[in-house]
Design brief:
mainly alpha, 3-stranded antiparallel β-sheet, 7 helices, globular, DUF2017 domain-containing protein, AosR
């Protein structure tokens, strides 16, 4: 398993993944896109107020999402002011969802452009990824969202490494936590490659 490096000749950020690793990343990114699209930030019902009707296309849901992962991805902006928090969410969450979905979709597209087939059916496949700075920053944001989603589903908390490392290797929670740590490793090497 290797991470990201800076190609000093092209100054682009590169990585090589096994077919399994690339397919796993595609699956994680696809799950983020699906989650963001399945529970949408729906605009409110039509209003008789002319101003609200005019701005309805820029409006979305004003309540915290039901799904704990979405609630973590879109935290309350103003915990002490319920009305301000609702207004902020209504006018920003839709665009934030679109941005997060686009970041995850870029991960998928880049892996497939690097040679990952729609169905992984061959051994020994290697997938090369080459990112310009803007794409690398987008991948970094996607990694953040994937890690937040995994941490939320697993119940990861600060300073609980001992618990995770005490689980047997064949425990599905331990395996999921290994994936969480692996994505963190990739994100760390990506940051390091960008700052060189």
């Amino acid at each position: 398993m290797s991470g990201f490096e800076r190609d000093t000749r092209t100054m682009r950020v590169i990585a090589t993944f096994t077919g399994f690793e690339a397919d796993l990343l595609r699956s994680l990114a696809s799950q983020i896109v699906e989650l963001l699209r399945n529970e949408r930030a729906e605009p409110p019902t039509p209003s008789a107020d002319p101003f609200e009707a005019l701005t309805a296309e820029f409006s979305g849901a004003s309540t915290v999402p039901d799904d704990p992962v979405l609630a973590r991805l879109f935290p309350v902006a103003y915990p002490a002011d319920e009305d301000a928090a609702a207004d902020f969410r209504r006018f920003t969450e839709g665009a934030l969802r679109d941005g997060k979905a686009a970041a995850a979709a870029l991960v998928i597209d880049t892996l497939e452009e690097g040679g990952l087939p729609p169905e992984l059916d061959q051994d020994g496949l290697m997938v090369d990824v080459e990112l310009d700075e803007a794409s690398a920053e987008t991948w970094m944001r996607a990694f953040t969202d994937i890690r937040l989603a995994l941490a939320t589903r697993l119940g990861v908390e600060a300073d609980d490494e001992h618990y995770w490392h005490s689980l047997p290797d064949d425990d599905p929670r331990a395996q999921a936590h290994d994936i969480y740590e692996w994505v963190g490793y990739l994100q760390e090497t990506l940051v390091e490659a960008l700052t060189r």
